[in-house]
Specification:
Elements: H1 10-26, E1 31-47, E2 50-68, E3 71-77, H2 82-97, H3 130-147, E4 151-170, E5 175-176, E6 179-193, E7 196-206, H4 215-228, E8 238-244, H5 246-259, H6 262-266, E9 287-289, E10 312-316, E11 319-320, H7 327-333, E12 347-349, H8 356-363, E13 366-373, E14 383-394, E15 397-410, H9 411-416, E16 418-421, E17 426-428, E18 431-433, E19 436-444
Amino acid sequence: MGKARFSQPIETLQEIAASVLRRAREKGASACETEVSHAYGQTVTVRKGEVETIEYNRDKGLSVTAYLGNKKGYASSSDLGAQAMADTVDKALTIARFTAADEAAGLADPELLCREAHDLDLFHPWDLPVERAIEMARECEAAAFRLDKRVVNSEGASVSCHQQQFALANSLGFMGGFPNSRYYVSCAVIAGEGNGMWRDDWFVSRRSPDDLPRVEAVGDYAGRRALARLRSRKIDTVTVPVLFEAPVASGLLSHFVSAVSGGSLYRKASFLLDSLGKQVFSPIVDIAERPHLARAMASSYFDDDGVATRDRDVVRAGELQGYFLSTYSARKLGLKSTGNAGGNHNLVLEPGEHDLPGLVRLMGRGLLVTELMGQGINLVNGDYSRGAAGFWVEGGEVRYPVEEITIAGNLRDMFRGIVAAGNDMLVRGSRECGSLLIDRMTIAGH
């Protein structure tokens, strides 16, 4: 598809990383870790057929974490030159000298470091001329407008290309890094009828441009979603089953990850404290972490600490099998790192037998949620309250769109109340899941 647009090969980044480690050792550091990166990006946004923005970025970065025993100092620079490198190391050491000791601070345990890695097919360079990117964005948006004259406005269609490469190294002998790419197409439009206006959108992100759908398909789907919300109604307050469409169901997985991540656990700021080996989901739920999937959005053989990643079951038959821990948070909890410094890697909620229409039929009567608003989540006690929009379901069929409602419950009850998981699998960032049907929630209407 094209060639990489990096100004320096990855070998140069590795040489800079090695120089950082040498400098830190010479200046008295007991340990050191560093990351050197270079990224290139281009994003084009078109609104109503006219170019709204063209953005380019070409970024370089150097970060250094130096240790003096259990005292830690951090410094960073956007200059990869030799003098800037030396200054950054010296600043990190100066900070470490004036920092309080922390028994949990330090490099990863040597036996946990990644010693062998393979190509996960994450880099697919694409020489996309800006003129072609503009044309693609216009085609995407035009597909939405072609659907129906009631698609009356647009918030824009975007086509984005990003390439990055990095080298991660520490003084225990770990050296890793690789190039990767991300491509993104999005469209957001507004449908109107009478005095009402309703917005919806769609986006797709992939490692390779070959895996992107036709841009017209993205715009078409965004337009159809907006049109489906015409004549949205309010409903009365009621307690019924709620079906989270796959894009918003992914957010429930995100809340789960936050609740069982090391930072929340050692701060005792989670409703899932001390849940290891306990039932936290419905018995039908299985969640796996798959960090070595080819071309996936969150694949890597190591985490941000250099710790080797591995396939594992996080939830099996509803029972929590493991937390998400970095080296630091694991030590704070008296546990071992799970290779999750920087977040989870390709978290997959195993699909069930039903597609979305099948889940609607299974629900019978209730609410299909397609959009969530606000941030009403309390991870300390699990309370959940979000503004929402979607569709009212009666007799196993979608009857009409609804708006201006609030759905409320508690995440602990919601997780245990999952009745079915859909097979309409969708990737959103580092998570992949289908739609989720929950047995009951309170819907506050008018």
